[in-house]
Write the structure tokens for this entry.
Amino acid sequence: MGGAPEGRERLTKPDDSAGGPFGGFGPDDLLACYARGVFPMAESRDDPRVFIIEPEQRGVIPLDGFHIPTRLRRTVRGEPFEVRVDTAFEAVLEGCAAAQGGERQDTWINDPIRRLYAALFARGFVHSIECWKDERLVGGLYGVSLGGAFFGESMFSRERDASKVALVHLVARLRKGGWTLLDAQFLTDHLIQFGAVETPQAAYLRCLKPALKVAVDDTALIAPMTGIEAVELALSPV
């Protein structure tokens, strides 16, 4: 859910010499990447290349140790946004791909990556958690679901706390549905406040293997949920 720090990843360029809409690297290849603990990124949104990233250290948000700051708990319970799931994936992807000022002047979501994730969304492997206000999309996140593992890809906000509210709702739904692993890719200061930890790639892979075999309740992602329920589920003892 964050940009890759320099010097901490191994980059391998997929074969883009083949024909077809995905340049020889398609949706099934992308799923296989997640299953072996790697993921794609681009250098920038205007760079047509896609690289496969294998970090030395992995950011993980423990589903049994999720933390919600006190002020954010009040915000989520107060329901300043209508939270929807999978109703505007393309718009969420666009929001994540857009530069948002500050340190985020560019993103790693280029056109090939857009096409790949759109294809996986159509097949039910990608989900978006969306925050709406006055019928306007103001924030959200998206990620890949494979077995009992959810791989958070990116998030964005156009209103204060919108992406944070989306994250709380995601965690609540994952816990309700039986997911066991929430991958955040890289540890950032933003994610540390939620209890995210950094773990060596080898340890991450040991967690990933059993998580992929878990059968989950997919309906938990899309079922309606109040803000009060989201906070309670995200923080409830296992």
The chain has a mean pLDDT of 88.
